[in-house]
Task: structure prediction
Amino acid sequence: MAWIYLFLAALCEIAMGTSLKMNEGWTRPLPSIAAIASGLMSIYLLALSLRTLPMGMAYAIWTGTGAVGLVLIGIVYFQETASPARLIFVSVTFIGLIGLRFSE
Result:
């Protein structure tokens, strides 16, 4: 169950980052509320996962998954640069996250 909590926490982290991008400096109420709610939910779910999982590994996977997810959302939905170097380094990050998961 801890891994499910951690995965959901990472999804909420991605939702928070996306909402922060869309709230235009806290000037748009709905994305601002979504950013706060998803951020709080992310931290809550992370805390639940930490009941069982090692803290350093869980935190690294939580932040790394959020970062990879936000880079991909930035490329797909916000037309951010998808240079070969950027894609390579995001791939290396993703591989590192998988390695952390299975090195437990």
Observations:
- Helices lie at 2-22, 29-49, 55-77, 84-102.
- The two ends are 16 Å apart (CA to CA).
- Residues 2-102 form one domain.
